[in-house]
Amino acid sequence: MILGIGTDLVDPARFIRWQSYSSERLQRVFTTQELAAATVNGVLVAEKLAVRFAAKEAFYKALSAMLVTLGATQKTASLLTMCKAVEVVNKTWGVPILVIHWDSLQELFGCILPAVSVHCSLAHEREMVVAFVIISAT
Question: Given 3.40.50.2000, 3.10.20.80, 3.30.365.10, 3.90.470.20, which CATH number is that of 2-137?
Answer without folding.
Answer: 3.90.470.20
